[in-house]
Amino acid sequence: MRPGERRASTGRRLRVCLAASGGGHVRQLLDLEGAWGPYDAFFVSEDTGLSRSLEQRRPTFFVEHVALGQGRLGAPLKMVAAGVRNAVQSARIVMRERPDVVVTTGAGSMFFTLFWARLLGARIVVIESFARFRNMSAFARLAGPLAHVKVLQSAALSKNWPGAPVFDPMRPLDGPRPAKEPLVFATVGATLPFDRLVASVEALKRQGVIDERVVVQTGVGGMRPDGLECHETLPFEEMLSMLRRAEIVVCHGGTGSLITALREGCHVIAMPRLFERGEHYDDHQAEITEAFAERGLILVAHSVEELAAAVAATRTREPVMATSDPSGLTDYLASLLAQWSRANS
Protein backbone atom coordinates (compact mmCIF):
# COMPACT_ATOMS: atom_id res chain seq x y z
CA MET A 1 0.00 0.00 0.00
CA ARG A 2 1.38 3.44 -0.93
CA PRO A 3 1.60 6.14 1.79
CA GLY A 4 -1.74 7.87 2.31
CA GLU A 5 -3.70 5.29 0.29
CA ARG A 6 -7.06 4.25 1.80
CA ARG A 7 -7.81 0.59 2.33
CA ALA A 8 -10.73 -0.91 0.46
CA SER A 9 -14.08 -0.99 2.24
CA THR A 10 -14.35 -3.97 4.58
CA GLY A 11 -17.92 -3.70 5.85
CA ARG A 12 -16.72 -3.98 9.45
CA ARG A 13 -17.33 -1.54 12.27
CA LEU A 14 -15.18 1.59 12.16
CA ARG A 15 -11.98 0.98 14.13
CA VAL A 16 -10.99 4.06 16.11
CA CYS A 17 -7.65 4.59 17.84
CA LEU A 18 -7.85 7.01 20.77
CA ALA A 19 -4.33 8.34 21.29
CA ALA A 20 -3.38 10.46 24.31
CA SER A 21 -0.58 10.67 26.83
CA GLY A 22 -1.42 10.71 30.56
CA GLY A 23 -3.37 13.24 32.60
CA GLY A 24 -5.66 15.79 30.99
CA HIS A 25 -5.07 14.48 27.47
CA VAL A 26 -6.62 11.13 28.40
CA ARG A 27 -9.39 12.72 30.44
CA GLN A 28 -10.58 14.76 27.48
CA LEU A 29 -10.81 11.64 25.31
CA LEU A 30 -12.93 10.06 28.03
CA ASP A 31 -15.16 13.16 28.00
CA LEU A 32 -15.71 12.55 24.27
CA GLU A 33 -17.00 9.00 24.72
CA GLY A 34 -20.38 10.06 23.38
CA ALA A 35 -18.71 10.34 19.96
CA TRP A 36 -16.45 7.27 19.86
CA GLY A 37 -18.46 4.97 22.12
CA PRO A 38 -20.47 3.24 19.34
CA TYR A 39 -17.34 2.15 17.47
CA ASP A 40 -14.62 -0.49 17.74
CA ALA A 41 -12.27 1.73 19.75
CA PHE A 42 -8.97 1.15 21.52
CA PHE A 43 -6.56 3.39 23.45
CA VAL A 44 -2.88 4.14 22.98
CA SER A 45 -1.30 5.94 25.92
CA GLU A 46 1.65 6.12 28.29
CA ASP A 47 1.81 3.74 31.23
CA THR A 48 0.29 5.78 34.09
CA GLY A 49 -2.22 5.04 36.83
CA LEU A 50 -4.95 6.86 34.92
CA SER A 51 -4.10 5.13 31.66
CA ARG A 52 -4.14 1.73 33.36
CA SER A 53 -7.75 2.41 34.34
CA LEU A 54 -8.59 2.63 30.62
CA GLU A 55 -8.12 -1.13 30.36
CA GLN A 56 -11.46 -1.53 32.14
CA ARG A 57 -13.18 0.29 29.25
CA ARG A 58 -11.46 -0.75 26.03
CA PRO A 59 -8.30 -2.52 24.82
CA THR A 60 -5.34 -0.36 25.81
CA PHE A 61 -1.75 -0.32 24.57
CA PHE A 62 1.19 1.55 26.08
CA VAL A 63 4.11 3.39 24.51
CA GLU A 64 7.21 5.04 25.93
CA HIS A 65 6.99 8.60 27.25
CA VAL A 66 8.84 10.97 24.94
CA ALA A 67 8.71 14.75 24.50
CA LEU A 68 10.78 17.36 22.69
CA GLY A 69 11.19 19.14 26.00
CA GLN A 70 13.45 16.37 27.24
CA GLY A 71 16.11 17.83 24.97
CA ARG A 72 15.45 21.32 26.28
CA LEU A 73 15.92 20.05 29.82
CA GLY A 74 19.35 18.69 28.99
CA ALA A 75 18.56 15.07 28.19
CA PRO A 76 18.73 14.84 24.37
CA LEU A 77 20.13 11.29 24.37
CA LYS A 78 17.33 10.16 26.67
CA MET A 79 14.84 11.81 24.32
CA VAL A 80 16.31 10.09 21.24
CA ALA A 81 16.42 6.67 22.93
CA ALA A 82 12.84 7.03 24.15
CA GLY A 83 11.78 8.21 20.69
CA VAL A 84 13.27 5.13 19.02
CA ARG A 85 11.52 2.80 21.46
CA ASN A 86 8.28 4.71 21.04
CA ALA A 87 8.51 4.55 17.24
CA VAL A 88 8.96 0.77 17.32
CA GLN A 89 6.17 0.24 19.87
CA SER A 90 3.81 2.49 17.91
CA ALA A 91 4.54 0.71 14.62
CA ARG A 92 3.77 -2.67 16.17
CA ILE A 93 0.48 -1.43 17.62
CA VAL A 94 -0.67 0.24 14.41
CA MET A 95 0.33 -2.68 12.21
CA ARG A 96 -1.54 -5.13 14.44
CA GLU A 97 -4.65 -3.05 15.20
CA ARG A 98 -5.08 -1.28 11.82
CA PRO A 99 -7.23 1.71 12.85
CA ASP A 100 -9.45 3.44 10.31
CA VAL A 101 -9.35 6.68 12.32
CA VAL A 102 -7.01 8.10 14.95
CA VAL A 103 -8.37 10.74 17.33
CA THR A 104 -5.70 12.40 19.45
CA THR A 105 -5.57 15.12 22.08
CA GLY A 106 -1.74 14.89 22.25
CA ALA A 107 0.99 14.97 23.27
CA GLY A 108 4.49 14.10 22.02
CA SER A 109 4.46 10.39 22.77
CA MET A 110 1.52 10.00 20.39
CA PHE A 111 3.29 11.38 17.31
CA PHE A 112 4.54 8.07 15.95
CA THR A 113 1.12 6.45 16.40
CA LEU A 114 -0.28 9.17 14.13
CA PHE A 115 2.63 8.88 11.71
CA TRP A 116 2.36 5.13 11.16
CA ALA A 117 -1.44 5.21 11.05
CA ARG A 118 -1.37 7.95 8.41
CA LEU A 119 1.07 5.90 6.31
CA LEU A 120 -1.35 2.98 6.45
CA GLY A 121 -4.26 5.14 5.28
CA ALA A 122 -6.05 6.05 8.52
CA ARG A 123 -7.84 9.37 8.86
CA ILE A 124 -6.27 11.61 11.52
CA VAL A 125 -8.14 14.00 13.86
CA VAL A 126 -5.88 16.26 15.92
CA ILE A 127 -7.57 18.13 18.79
CA GLU A 128 -5.26 20.82 20.15
CA SER A 129 -5.01 20.59 23.91
CA PHE A 130 -7.34 22.63 26.11
CA ALA A 131 -4.10 23.49 27.93
CA ARG A 132 -3.21 25.81 25.04
CA PHE A 133 -4.93 29.18 25.19
CA ARG A 134 -2.51 31.53 23.41
CA ASN A 135 0.29 29.47 21.83
CA MET A 136 0.22 26.22 19.87
CA SER A 137 1.80 23.15 21.42
CA ALA A 138 4.86 21.60 19.83
CA PHE A 139 2.80 18.45 19.30
CA ALA A 140 0.14 20.34 17.34
CA ARG A 141 2.78 21.99 15.16
CA LEU A 142 4.28 18.58 14.37
CA ALA A 143 1.03 16.64 14.04
CA GLY A 144 -0.94 19.30 12.16
CA PRO A 145 0.51 18.40 8.72
CA LEU A 146 -0.56 14.78 9.26
CA ALA A 147 -4.15 15.68 10.15
CA HIS A 148 -7.20 15.40 7.94
CA VAL A 149 -9.17 17.34 10.56
CA LYS A 150 -7.78 19.88 13.05
CA VAL A 151 -9.76 21.18 16.05
CA LEU A 152 -9.01 24.09 18.40
CA GLN A 153 -10.27 24.88 21.89
CA SER A 154 -9.19 28.52 22.00
CA ALA A 155 -10.21 31.16 19.46
CA ALA A 156 -6.84 32.90 19.99
CA LEU A 157 -5.18 30.04 18.08
CA SER A 158 -7.30 30.38 14.93
CA LYS A 159 -4.50 32.33 13.25
CA ASN A 160 -2.40 29.17 13.37
CA TRP A 161 -5.03 26.84 11.93
CA PRO A 162 -7.30 29.07 9.82
CA GLY A 163 -10.71 27.52 9.27
CA ALA A 164 -10.36 24.95 12.06
CA PRO A 165 -13.51 24.67 14.20
CA VAL A 166 -13.20 26.10 17.74
CA PHE A 167 -14.88 24.64 20.84
CA ASP A 168 -14.29 26.44 24.17
CA PRO A 169 -15.40 23.85 26.72
CA MET A 170 -15.41 25.80 30.02
CA ARG A 171 -18.83 26.08 31.74
CA PRO A 172 -19.84 27.17 35.28
CA LEU A 173 -21.70 24.71 37.50
CA ASP A 174 -24.61 25.70 39.74
CA GLY A 175 -25.40 22.36 41.39
CA PRO A 176 -24.88 21.50 45.08
CA ARG A 177 -21.31 21.19 46.27
CA PRO A 178 -20.27 17.70 47.44
CA ALA A 179 -19.93 17.22 51.20
CA LYS A 180 -16.35 17.99 52.18
CA GLU A 181 -13.91 16.83 54.85
CA PRO A 182 -11.08 18.77 56.54
CA LEU A 183 -8.70 17.38 53.93
CA VAL A 184 -6.00 18.96 51.76
CA PHE A 185 -5.15 16.86 48.72
CA ALA A 186 -1.93 17.75 46.90
CA THR A 187 -1.40 16.20 43.48
CA VAL A 188 1.47 16.63 41.05
CA GLY A 189 -0.11 14.83 38.08
CA ALA A 190 0.48 11.54 36.34
CA THR A 191 3.78 12.03 34.54
CA LEU A 192 6.54 13.85 36.44
CA PRO A 193 7.47 14.42 40.10
CA PHE A 194 7.11 18.00 41.35
CA ASP A 195 9.12 18.28 44.57
CA ARG A 196 8.72 22.06 44.91
CA LEU A 197 4.96 21.67 45.30
CA VAL A 198 5.31 18.77 47.74
CA ALA A 199 7.96 20.60 49.81
CA SER A 200 5.78 23.74 49.95
CA VAL A 201 2.77 21.80 51.25
CA GLU A 202 4.96 19.98 53.78
CA ALA A 203 6.38 23.32 55.02
CA LEU A 204 2.90 24.79 55.59
CA LYS A 205 1.77 21.65 57.39
CA ARG A 206 4.84 21.83 59.64
CA GLN A 207 4.22 25.54 60.33
CA GLY A 208 0.56 24.94 61.23
CA VAL A 209 -0.77 27.03 58.32
CA ILE A 210 -2.47 23.85 57.16
CA ASP A 211 -4.15 22.10 60.08
CA GLU A 212 -6.26 19.72 57.96
CA ARG A 213 -5.28 16.16 57.15
CA VAL A 214 -2.92 16.14 54.14
CA VAL A 215 -2.70 13.48 51.43
CA VAL A 216 -0.05 13.87 48.73
CA GLN A 217 0.26 12.20 45.33
CA THR A 218 3.98 12.63 44.67
CA GLY A 219 4.62 11.19 41.22
CA VAL A 220 6.99 8.30 40.60
CA GLY A 221 10.26 8.92 42.43
CA GLY A 222 9.04 12.18 43.99
CA MET A 223 9.92 13.27 47.53
CA ARG A 224 7.88 11.67 50.33
CA PRO A 225 7.99 13.90 53.44
CA ASP A 226 7.80 12.21 56.82
CA GLY A 227 4.51 12.76 58.59
CA LEU A 228 2.42 13.06 55.45
CA GLU A 229 0.34 10.35 53.79
CA CYS A 230 2.06 9.94 50.42
CA HIS A 231 1.26 7.92 47.29
CA GLU A 232 3.38 7.90 44.14
CA THR A 233 0.34 7.26 41.95
CA LEU A 234 -3.35 6.64 42.54
CA PRO A 235 -5.87 4.77 40.40
CA PHE A 236 -8.31 7.13 38.75
CA GLU A 237 -11.25 6.16 40.96
CA GLU A 238 -9.20 6.73 44.13
CA MET A 239 -8.10 10.10 42.78
CA LEU A 240 -11.74 11.04 42.18
CA SER A 241 -12.65 9.92 45.69
CA MET A 242 -9.97 12.19 47.13
CA LEU A 243 -11.17 15.14 45.08
CA ARG A 244 -14.81 14.59 46.09
CA ARG A 245 -13.84 14.72 49.78
CA ALA A 246 -11.08 17.34 49.79
CA GLU A 247 -11.86 20.88 50.94
CA ILE A 248 -8.65 22.21 49.36
CA VAL A 249 -6.70 20.87 46.40
CA VAL A 250 -3.14 22.02 45.71
CA CYS A 251 -2.12 20.89 42.25
CA HIS A 252 0.19 21.50 39.33
CA GLY A 253 -1.12 23.45 36.33
CA GLY A 254 -2.43 20.55 34.27
CA THR A 255 -5.94 21.00 32.91
CA GLY A 256 -7.04 17.52 33.95
CA SER A 257 -6.24 18.14 37.60
CA LEU A 258 -7.68 21.67 37.54
CA ILE A 259 -10.97 20.81 35.86
CA THR A 260 -11.60 17.66 37.87
CA ALA A 261 -11.02 19.54 41.14
CA LEU A 262 -13.29 22.41 40.02
CA ARG A 263 -15.97 19.94 39.02
CA GLU A 264 -15.90 18.47 42.54
CA GLY A 265 -16.30 21.87 44.24
CA CYS A 266 -12.82 22.09 45.78
CA HIS A 267 -10.92 25.24 46.65
CA VAL A 268 -8.26 24.96 43.96
CA ILE A 269 -4.75 26.36 44.40
CA ALA A 270 -2.44 25.80 41.43
CA MET A 271 1.35 25.89 41.48
CA PRO A 272 2.44 25.75 37.84
CA ARG A 273 5.56 23.88 36.83
CA LEU A 274 8.18 26.26 35.39
CA PHE A 275 10.66 25.56 32.62
CA GLU A 276 13.35 27.76 34.19
CA ARG A 277 13.35 25.46 37.22
CA GLY A 278 13.58 22.34 35.07
CA GLU A 279 10.09 21.23 36.13
CA HIS A 280 8.52 20.97 32.68
CA TYR A 281 9.34 21.16 29.00
CA ASP A 282 7.92 24.69 28.61
CA ASP A 283 5.82 27.24 30.53
CA HIS A 284 2.37 26.27 29.27
CA GLN A 285 1.22 25.53 32.84
CA ALA A 286 1.84 29.17 33.78
CA GLU A 287 -0.31 30.16 30.79
CA ILE A 288 -3.07 27.75 31.81
CA THR A 289 -3.20 28.83 35.45
CA GLU A 290 -3.15 32.52 34.51
CA ALA A 291 -6.14 31.98 32.19
CA PHE A 292 -8.06 30.05 34.88
CA ALA A 293 -7.27 32.71 37.49
CA GLU A 294 -8.47 35.46 35.13
CA ARG A 295 -11.84 33.66 35.00
CA GLY A 296 -11.95 33.65 38.81
CA LEU A 297 -11.80 29.88 39.00
CA ILE A 298 -8.60 29.24 40.96
CA LEU A 299 -5.87 30.79 43.07
CA VAL A 300 -2.25 30.63 41.89
CA ALA A 301 0.92 30.32 43.98
CA HIS A 302 4.57 30.29 42.89
CA SER A 303 6.23 30.10 46.32
CA VAL A 304 5.67 28.90 49.88
CA GLU A 305 4.64 32.43 50.87
CA GLU A 306 2.11 32.73 48.06
CA LEU A 307 0.77 29.27 48.87
CA ALA A 308 0.29 30.31 52.52
CA ALA A 309 -1.63 33.41 51.37
CA ALA A 310 -3.79 31.31 49.05
CA VAL A 311 -4.60 28.81 51.79
CA ALA A 312 -5.60 31.72 54.06
CA ALA A 313 -7.82 33.10 51.28
CA THR A 314 -9.74 29.83 51.07
CA ARG A 315 -10.95 30.35 54.64
CA THR A 316 -13.21 33.23 53.51
CA ARG A 317 -13.52 32.67 49.75
CA GLU A 318 -16.51 30.87 48.25
CA PRO A 319 -15.39 27.93 46.10
CA VAL A 320 -16.19 28.05 42.41
CA MET A 321 -17.57 25.03 40.60
CA ALA A 322 -16.93 24.63 36.89
CA THR A 323 -16.43 21.91 34.34
CA SER A 324 -15.50 21.30 30.75
CA ASP A 325 -18.60 20.79 28.65
CA PRO A 326 -17.56 18.77 25.61
CA SER A 327 -21.02 18.60 24.03
CA GLY A 328 -20.20 20.81 21.03
CA LEU A 329 -16.98 18.98 20.26
CA THR A 330 -18.64 15.62 20.93
CA ASP A 331 -21.40 16.37 18.42
CA TYR A 332 -18.89 17.51 15.83
CA LEU A 333 -16.71 14.42 16.28
CA ALA A 334 -19.74 12.12 16.29
CA SER A 335 -20.82 13.55 12.93
CA LEU A 336 -17.36 12.98 11.46
CA LEU A 337 -17.15 9.41 12.70
CA ALA A 338 -20.67 8.61 11.47
CA GLN A 339 -19.77 9.94 8.02
CA TRP A 340 -16.59 7.87 7.90
CA SER A 341 -18.39 4.81 9.27
CA ARG A 342 -20.90 4.98 6.41
CA ALA A 343 -18.05 5.23 3.92
CA ASN A 344 -16.40 2.23 5.60
CA SER A 345 -19.51 0.01 5.37
Characterize this entry briefly.
With 345 residues, the chain is α/β, with parallel strands linked by helices. It has 13 helices and 14 strands.
| Number of domain units | 2
* Full CATH superfamily name of the largest domain: Glycogen Phosphorylase B
Low-confidence stretches: 1-10
Beta-strand residue percentage: 15-25%
Count all strands and give the number: 14
- Taken from the alpha-carbon principal axes, the silhouette is globular
Describe the model.
With 345 residues, the chain is an alpha/beta fold. It has two domains: 15-169 and 325-344, Rossmann fold (3-Layer(aba) Sandwich); 181-324, Rossmann fold (3-Layer(aba) Sandwich). It is built from 13 helices and 14 strands. The protein has a six-stranded parallel sheet. α5 (76-97) crosses α6. Residues 1-10 have low confidence and may be disordered.
Keywords:
six-stranded parallel beta sheet, 2 domains, Rossmann fold, alpha/beta, about 350 residues, disordered N terminus, globular
Topology:
Layout: E1 15-20, H1 24-31, H2 33-36, E2 40-45, H3 49-53, E3 60-62, H4 69-72, H5 76-97, E4 101-106, H6 111-119, E5 123-127, H7 138-143, E6 149-151, E7 170-172, E8 181-187, H8 195-207, E9 213-217, E10 229-231, H9 236-245, E11 246-251, H10 255-263, E12 267-270, H11 284-294, E13 299-300, H12 304-314, E14 322-324, H13 327-344
Parallel strand pairs: 1-2, 1-4, 2-3, 4-5, 5-6, 8-9, 8-11, 9-10, 11-12, 12-13
Antiparallel strand pairs: 7-14
Helix pairs in contact: 5-6
